[in-house]
Amino acid sequence: MTASMSLAFSLVGVAHADGTTPGTLVSSSASPAPIPGSVDAARITYWSVGPRDEAALSTGGVYLPPGQAPAGGWPVIAWAHGTSGLGDDCAPSVVGPTLPERDFPYLSTWLQKGYAIVATDYVGLGTPGVMAYLDGKVQAHSVVDSVTAARALYPSLSNRWVAIGQSQGGGAAVTTARYATEYGGESLDYLGAVGTGVPANIELALLPLGPGVPPVAIPDGLTSYVFYILAGLRSAHPEIDVDSYLTPLGKQWVDTAETMCAMPFHDAVAGLKLGEMLSRPLAQIPNLYGVLNDYMGVPTSGYDRPVFIGQGLRDIDVPAPSALSLAAAMTANGEPLTFKTYPGDHSQTFRDSQPDAVAFVDGLFGRR
């Protein structure tokens, strides 16, 4: 990355002479992975903000619904995708979603209902650097700035928008909800957010990790998530020297995490014991909880628009206590939260919650 690309942002939204203002559209091309039902689809590259508040590039997709745009333009859904992996060839704007049989019908439904979709890949996924996996504030910048960039390409897009996400994207959408007004400035009219399978308080699971802990293999998906977190944390916080806490085998797997997409990586880590990946306890990292909470903690206060969170009671990817504790904290803080539980697992809840999400979003736009 050039020196001009690494200039730090002093104020979000302020124009920079070097052209790196967040939300600035850099390039566009025809989408190689359009959402079924979209009548126009483009892949965009735009400027956003990275883990150390430096200028950083992100890519994403823009998908228009059929018909003529209404007065004021197409209402916008900023889609935050779930875990796709950290390798540059895992970017959904290029290859589509990790679970197309699940995600395409969900996204197509929004198009059918007259919403345009702007879908970031997140900074570092298909662009220079490593994607800071679960770094909420970086993901929030990627989401907000994608809307600004998309509107520069398509004047038919309204400035009124909501954020919606699942799993990793559920956390991204809810964190975006906390910062959208601040990051978007006066040019955007942010209305609210929907998150399902929100990975809240996951940082707590990392606190006890160390040699021999845990001593047994945990579900493959959770193991891969930990490697992705360590890879993202290593990139975002080089001062921690994450490698010094890893065994040679652990370093090998964190290195591998930077290059592999989600499904093959889940299979590759099957049977691994995280306790064999660490040479010393992560708790030796100074202020470990503070570092992790700043990096990946989902905010529990400061929301200025309504938020909907849906959680599956049989979810083992993001267990129910994760979202339940988040909902309890947000409720105690008087935040504008609508929280609903569903009987299914991670993916089933994503699908089953859509009618409630549609009603919620329609209400935000005054469409019902």
- The CATH class of the largest domain turns out to be Alpha Beta
| Uncertain stretches of 5 or more adjacent residues | 1-13
Number of contiguous helices? 12
Major beta-sheet overview: 9 strands, mixed
Query: Can you list the strand order of the major beta sheet?
Result: 1-2-3-5-4-6-7-8-9
The helix/strand class is alpha/beta
What brief labels describe this structure?
single chain; nine-stranded mixed beta sheet; Rossmann fold; disordered N terminus; globular; alpha/beta; 368 residues
Describe the structure.
With 368 residues, this protein is α/β, with parallel strands linked by helices. It folds into two domains: 4-200 and 299-364, Alpha/Beta hydrolase fold, catalytic domain (Rossmann fold); 203-294. The chain is 35% helix and 18% strand. The protein is built from twelve helices and nine strands. A nine-stranded mixed beta sheet has the order 1-2-3-5-4-6-7-8-9, sandwiched between helices. Strand 8 (307-312), helix 10 (320-332) and strand 9 (337-342) form a beta-alpha-beta unit. Helix 6 (220-236) crosses helix 8 (262-268).
How is the topology of this model organized?
Elements: E1 25-30, E2 40-49, E3 55-64, E4 74-80, H1 92-95, H2 100-112, E5 116-120, H3 136-153, E6 157-166, H4 168-184, E7 189-196, H5 203-206, H6 220-236, H7 248-257, H8 262-268, H9 288-296, E8 307-312, H10 320-332, E9 337-342, H11 346-352, H12 354-364
Parallel strand pairs: 4-5, 4-6, 6-7, 7-8, 8-9
Antiparallel strand pairs: 1-2, 2-3, 3-5
Helix pairs in contact: 3-4, 6-7, 6-8
